[in-house]
Design a protein that fits this description.
Helix content is 44%, strand content 16%. The protein has helices at residues 2-11, 19-24, 28-37, 43-53, 67-81, 104-115, 119-134, 156-163, 173-179, 191-194, 218-227; strands spanning 38-41, 56-61, 85-92, 137-141, 167-171, 202-207, 238-243. Helix 1 runs antiparallel to helix 5 and helix 6 packs antiparallel against helix 7 (119-134). The two termini are 25 Å apart.
């Protein structure tokens, strides 16, 4: 179940590309394509890390509102309900950088939408509200998030805040590019090396929508442009890349 929810949190990021993409999420055909298009999958490493540190203090560096946010909330609920996490903090933007960026009000709007859904969805909304009421689920904003600064330029207070976590889940293409300085690293550069400065164990969930990538194999770098000239930018492929330090 952890794998399913982590992957849903990844692929939910594609929804900001187009409504037709959203329509195909969850279909059997899309599940098969998702497995094929997941270029790096460190899910097992993340799970093993959580087993060692549970109950963990976990932070999400959130990306899009809407479907992606709902997938993130479902994952947060699982982590808290299964006592894999003692607390989950959603790091949100105080104002948007992109129109789809998640702000605190979007969380409450998402709960309201789920309360109008089917029974299981309403139950999830109730648990999320309980997590908020108990302090297990927390919402945080910082002036840094809607800026153009990179993550190696974290201000001291935010660096200390993130360093206190056992796992930071970094969401989306824009956050991923901020991790590696929006630079054209060689595609085979190890992910661990690029993010070695990050102050906590972390995993990046990214669908590829920009002409940057790291942590790929030489075979992938050779074959992907032949299979799909737009593989870097069309959002069809994703990565789940963990920094194990």
């Amino acid at each position: 179940r952890f794998e399913r929810l982590l992957h849903a949190s990844l692929w939910g990021n594609r929804v900001d590309l187009s409504l037709p993409v959203a329509a195909h999420l969850g279909s059997n055909r899309s599940k098969e394509a998702e497995r094929e298009n997941l270029l790096v999958d460190d899910t097992q490493a993340v799970w093993e890390h959580l087993q060692k540190v549970e109950p963990a203090q976990i932070a999400f560096l959130s990306d899009n509102s809407g479907t992606e946010l709902l997938m993130d909330l479902a994952l947060a609920d699982f982590l808290l309900s299964e006592r894999l996490a003692s607390s989950v903090t959603l790091h949100l933007k105080p104002q948007p950088y992109f129109v789809s960026d998640t702000m605190p009000q979007d969380v409450f709007d998402g709960i309201e939408v789920m309360e109008r859904g089917e029974e299981r969805t309403r139950a999830l909304a109730g648990r999320i509200q309980q997590h908020l009421n108990s302090g297990g689920l927390r919402l945080s904003t910082h002036w840094f998030y809607p800026t153009s600064l990179f993550y190696f330029q974290l201000p001291d207070d935010l660096r200390a805040d993130l360093a206190a976590n056992d796992l930071v889940i970094v969401k989306g293409d824009a956050n991923y590019r901020r991790l590696h300085g929006d630079a054209h690293w060689p595609y085979t550069t190890p992910f661990d090396y690029v993010v070695r400065y990050f102050p906590a164990p972390m995993v990046a969930l990214r669908t590829l929508k920009g002409e940057h990538a790291v942590g790929l194999s030489a075979q992938q770098v050779e074959q992907l442009p032949k299979q799909d000239p737009d593989w870097l930018v069309n959002g069809k492929r994703g990565v789940i890349q963990a920094r194990r330090a």
